[in-house]
Amino acid sequence: MNVAIIPARGGSKRIPRKNIKPFAGRPMIAHSIVAARESGLFERIIVSTDDEEIAQVSRDYGAEVPFMRPAELADDFAGTDAVLLHALTWLKERGELPDAFCCIYATAPFVRSEFLRQGLEALYREEATTAFSVTSFAYSIFRALRTTTNGRLEMIWPENRDRRSQDLGEAYHDAGQFYWADTQKYLGEQKLFSRDAVPVFIPRYLVQDIDTPEDWETAERMYRALFS
């Protein structure tokens, strides 16, 4: 059995009510729920929230909210791993622990069901603890700059000054969309960024952080250009 777990607390600060604010015609969290449903991979889609309005919107789009998240896991400092462990403990106590689970962020409107499927395939093919979405940096990080204490610029890795960027290798960052895990292995390590994590490569045009109103506007324009 596979379970999707979507963390969605109510106390977003930079974009109030971010998880249920309308994005491209539907509440933000609905995009994640719909992608999970369309993938056909999950026997259950569970939303972990402390907020009744988020809970109701989630139910309206086909997810279940079988418990409310405790306040100590809904503040600005609660990490994703702690939230997932709480949900898994709830399932274990009822004898419903899944073979694998997928944490899907509530603010990932570009998540596609085909990449969710690729993630599960990679998890089992590589016999890994976790598999999660990554995308490449647009420019080589190995030629990155920083400012010094006196306001001047310097290379972080000056040894790469005269090397061609194509010779420096690719670098990736977390795409912030989804994280598959083998449940038993994850309970042993209790980290999504496990020691043997494998990548699920997402094209850069399907990745957009949404942390500010400007990010939101940019993401909606991207979404409409891609899917309208």
UniProtKB/TrEMBL annotation:
CDD domains: CMP-NeuAc_Synthase. The keyword Lyase does not apply. InterPro entries: CMP-NeuNAc_synthase (IPR050793), Cytidylyl_trans (IPR003329), Nucleotide-diphossugar_trans (IPR029044), PseF (IPR020039). The keyword Nucleotidyltransferase applies. One of its GO terms (molecular function) is N-acylneuraminate cytidylyltransferase activity. Keywords: Nucleotidyltransferase, Transferase. SUPFAM superfamilies: Nucleotide-diphospho-sugar transferases. PANTHER family: HAD SUPERFAMILY MEMBERS CMAS AND KDSC (PTHR21485), N-ACYLNEURAMINATE CYTIDYLYLTRANSFERASE-RELATED (PTHR21485:SF6). This is Pseudaminic acid cytidylyltransferase. It comes from Geobacter hydrogenophilus. The gene is rkpN.
